[in-house]
Amino acid sequence: MQFKLTEEHEMIRKMVRDFAQNEVAPTAAERDEEERFDREIFDKMAELGLTGIPWPEEYGGIGSDYLAYCIAIEELSRVCASTGVTLSAHTSLAGWPIYKFGSEEQKQKYLRPMAQGEKIGAYGLTEPSSGSDAGGMRTTAKLVGDEYIINGSKIFITNGGIADTYVVFALTDPESKQKGTSAFIIESDFPGFSVGKKEKKLGIRSSPTTEIIFDECRVPKANLLGKEGEGFKIAMMTLDGGRNGIAAQAVGIAQGALDAAVNYAKERVQFGKPISAQQGIGFKLADMATGVEASRLLTYQAAWLESVGLPYGKESAMSKLFAGDTAMKVTTEAVQVFGGYGYTKDYPVERYMRDAKITQIYEGTQEIQKLVISRMVTK
Ligand code: CAA
């Protein structure tokens, strides 16, 4: 087994780390406070090629792999988890299904401008009454002439309102539930499409999360993604990879909190010596560092499996489960290391703790990851 990253991976890590430190970190707290998405940051990511890391050059990408993509999400999330998830939803939730299931025409029309960062992508699966039970959706798509007429709504949409291209799932045959679900590529200016309520959130506050509404929304037949009835499978396969992007986000959040805790513990003197040299805190830092490293290895493994074309669904659910729980533990401990200061907005660890919580919830709750893993190991 070989654990060394390639030169290309190391180069991408360095480039994203510099970018994150210089361009993303300085405004992270302010954007969190103001719940403000910054398009300029996205545009700068596009200039660096980050908006199309795993896609081939013929589709506007930089032709790298899923491991490089995870490293980028990790490095961004190390300073700003909101920026991490903006790129993650754009790439693995919207770009991936178009890359895998789109026709050549759809890839040129939709994936290319997304990969080049001219357009932002989003994914619409969850509905008010179907969250974990994704097969219980109610949004319908009826073929009338050359168009599908879509009615319904989707909630908790990452990049809602800022996205131009939405990959959305709807029932073309409501009786058949999962087998009657189809996927569509929907442009934000299609008639009948609108953006609804914007959520006020605990964390990832500079990443907009909204409702999207379809009121007799007219979608050209050519925007069916894959075949009719393939939608549920497309949604699930998309989440298989997406979950590893969230694991990478969790690794980044945990690493950021660990770095802050280590630096603080070395400087903070109590009882005549730095608190890092006192076992109560030293052992905490050891547990935190071990958790981060284990999470990173699981995440890189799943990314590597996907990059070389091996099955990765189980490993991706495992990485999200483990890294998400680790991020929550590590960030909570980081606040503890900072004591009273950690509870204030003078330091970034309270933000890391708030941001970590969502990694246990979105792209399938931890309980859903356990369901997926248990089904795979008992199959
Ligand atoms: N790959 C390929 N096919 C799959 C699959 C996968 N990973 N998972 C399921 N399928 C197929 C099954 O094989 C089955 O097909 P057949 O009948 O032909 O065999 C079909 O899909 C139905 O599968 P299940 O019977 O397993 O379906 P289920 O109703 O029991 O649901 C579930 C399974 C895993 C619980 C699923 O509902 C699920 O993943 N729920 C969580 C949803 C989720 O993660 N939502 C997050 C949304 S995105 C988000 O968070 C917002 C954001 O923007 C970040």
Automatic annotation (TrEMBL):
What InterPro entries does the entry give? Acyl-CoA_DH_CS, Acyl-CoA_Oxase/DH_mid-dom, Acyl-CoA_Oxase/DH_mid-dom_sf, AcylCo_DH-like_C, AcylCo_DH/oxidase_C, AcylCoA_DH/ox_N, AcylCoA_DH/ox_N_sf, AcylCoA_DH/oxidase_NM_dom_sf
Q: Which UniProt keywords apply?
A: FAD, Flavoprotein, Oxidoreductase
In what residue span(s) does the Acyl-CoA dehydrogenase/oxidase N-terminal domain sit?
Answer: 6-118
In the record, what terms sit under GO molecular function?
acyl-CoA dehydrogenase activity; flavin adenine dinucleotide binding
* Catalytic reactions on record: a 2,3-saturated acyl-CoA + A = a 2,3-dehydroacyl-CoA + AH2
Top-level taxon of origin: Bacteria
Outline the extent of the Acyl-CoA oxidase/dehydrogenase middle domain.
122-217
Q: Which cofactor does it need?
A: FAD
Span of domain Acyl-CoA dehydrogenase/oxidase C-terminal: 229-376
Question: Is-annotated flag, keyword Lipid biosynthesis?
Answer: no
> Which family does the record claim for this protein?
Belongs to the acyl-CoA dehydrogenase family.
Q: What is this protein called?
A: Acyl-CoA dehydrogenase
Q: Which organism is it from?
A: Peribacillus simplex
